[in-house]
Fold this sequence. Notes:
Elements: H1 2-13, H2 20-27, E1 34-37, H3 41-51, E2 59-62, H4 63-66, H5 73-83, E3 91-94, H6 97-105, E4 110-114, E5 129-131, H7 137-143
Amino acid sequence: QLAEAFRARLAAQCPPFDDVVGALEALRGAYALAVISNGPMDVQRLKLRVAGIERFFPIVVTSGEVGFGKPHERIFAAALEALGVSADEAVMVGDHLERDIHGARRLAISGIWLNRSAVATAAGVDPAVEIASLSELAGALAAI
Length: 144
C-alpha cells in the first residue's frame, strides 16, 4: 500500500510538459536517447513510466550505478559507453546549466540548455546552445 501511495503521489508530481512527447517523437529513430540522473534507478524508471515517456529511453544511467553524479565526468562517460558513441557524437540536453551542460562539456560533449524560466546566467558563464522549449530542440540539434 505504501508503494502504491508513493506511485500515485509521484504520478501527480511529474507529468511531462506539453512539449515533451512531441519532441521525443521527433527525435526517435534519428538519435539514440538516454537519461542521466542523480536519482536512484528505480525512482527514475518509475518517473519515466508514470510520465508516459519510458519507451523513449532504453538507457538510464544513474549516480547510484556509476558511483558519481552529475556534474562528474564519470557519469557522462558511462552514458557514452552505454550508448556506444563518442563525446563528439553526443549532445547533452538538460535544464541545469552547471550539473548538466558544464558537466558534459568537461568531456567535450556539446550541450543544449533547456532554460524554460529564462534564468539569467552569471557573467562569463557560457550557456552553450539555449532553448526555452523542447519544441526548439530539433532545430537546435540540426544547428550543432
